[in-house]
Records
---
Amino acid sequence: GVRRITGLKPTGHLHLGNLLGAIRPIVTGQYRAETIVFLADLHALTVTHQPNEVRANTLEQATTLLAAGLDPDRVTLYVQSQVPQHTELHYLLECTTGYGEAQRMIQFREKSVTQPNVRLSLLSYPVLMAADILLHDVHEVPVGADQSQHLELTRAVANRFNTRYGDTFVVPRAVLPTVSARVMDLADPTRKMGKTAETDAGIIFLLDPPEVIRRKVTRAVTDPGRTVEYDPQSRPGLANLLDILAAAVGDPPTALTAGYRSYAQLKTAVVEAVDGLLRPIRLRHAELARDPGYVRQVLVEGAERARDSAADTVYRAKRAIGLLT
Ligand code: TYM
């Protein structure tokens, strides 16, 4: 059968980009594919962080994933730092990756100019990500478009290792959603919706109450013009709203334009569609948050399962690369 993995970095609250880019695809596929999901807390340490916030975000994101429909009887859900094989394999892969190769990663280049003290781990972050993925012999990695380059690096590292040291890793591929692989910030539609934006005005968080969703969508930046057309190049704000609506209702964005005569009409539809997506998550989250012991238990069991499956891969990699096992 097909095996899949995805990870989420607990640096803030989960948002609509995370849902449409990664969470929903993984939940939709969970009964077809053997699925692994983890909270990438080690990745959260690559930039300035507050220790208590990372911990709280980790539990909140796990709770939100369950609220979004992840079935813990079906999916292995765990916290990265509770499975030591991630860092074990990370080191072996650092010894298979070029310094220049890591430096070429776009996210590193972007973040290393805005961060005051660039951590060494920010440079090697994509290598840890490669280890996350290769650890579990997966075929598919559902992610948003911003992770494509990291997936290419993962494939390059795996292929090189296999060629140099003998067949060790399954070479996985990225799986991107057809619409909404890159949900843009509502207040600045030229940048992706993300936790690192300066304000929250353009980010719809999964736990935002209905009135906040309404306000953010209503204030979304649109483009000059009156007609509702789908043109991501010259009208990115409008196209973003159409993409979000398309993802919510399951029609292609170009098929939706005819239904709306004004931006206001379109925004009303977007508010309803987004609230329809988020309401069940919000309600279920409120229930689950009353029982953090349950969520922690899911994570404990997930980590146990993940350690078992990962140990075998690390053993293979150690043998292949020349360590005494
Ligand atoms: P992170 O935490 O930034 O994002 C989690 C997932 O959400 C997707 N995503 C988006 N999709 C569409 N539109 C957006 N605006 C948007 N913003 C985020 C991301 O593409 C991602 O799929 N490096 C990863 C975490 C990670 C990982 C892994 C993922 C660590 N190891 C192994 C897959 C496999 C990250 O920072 O994701």
---
Amino acid sequence: IRANFSIILGENEKTTGFITVISDVTEQEKVERERKEFVSNVSHELRTPLTTMRSYLEALSDGAWKDNEIAPKFLEVTQNETERMIRLVNDLLQLSKMDNKDYTLYKERVNFISYFHHIIDRFEMNKPEDIVLDRQLPKNDVFVWLDKDKMTQVLDNIISNAMKYSPEGGTITFHLKKEKQKLLISVSDEGMGISHEKLDKVFDRFYRADKARSRKLGGTGLGLAIAKELVEAHEGKIWAKSKEGKGTTILFTLPLIQKKRRGVS
Ligand code: ADP
């Protein structure tokens, strides 16, 4: 808190009053600190793939390109790093659009059950063989207002994390529960979990519970931050539960479209 104290002088230099301005600078400072941290994070995130690529390209131009075995491997590394940078920049652009409220949700009335099945089907086709997808979804239709593209992104981010952090032979469970005014959606895995004190932070930009592992798996550290923004734009909430060594559950809510009651005018 900053306090400015002024004395008001009237004619004859006589004190006629006092003004005290007390302003809360902690919020301003916090915003400024977060902005600096963000710029530093972005720079770091971009520098890492770039320096990796530079050294592989140097090795290639120093003669590794002639080696039939090494050259394709080195090229693959540079390709992967390029892909990661593209993902990162796309994620950043999206977050920046959301920060500037420079986007529109195209919401439509969607039966979440069939929509969710469709999303899981896509993963079913591309998953490692030993991972099991378990759908605990009700049979009756459940309607919500959704921007399908944006919600697909939310689910893609959550489910691909569940896949990335699943152990061999792990099961990923999809759950849907109708509550009074909202729908509760959850995705659980049997992976390494997230420790209690890190649970809320995983929704922060660039936060990674396990840096080395996230990088190795090609993560940008922005997936859950984007999911959070998009769920909140749908007037929902998102959070995580976890038992270390046992698994993680990501949960979120969406407001339900209430059925019209008949006979009530
Ligand atoms: P990343 O691209 O690193 O996966 P996210 O924003 O998607 O970034 O997730 C942030 C961090 O949260 C991850 O780096 C990881 O440490 C942790 N995390 C997310 N989902 C899971 C999960 N299902 N199991 C364990 N840790 C997870």
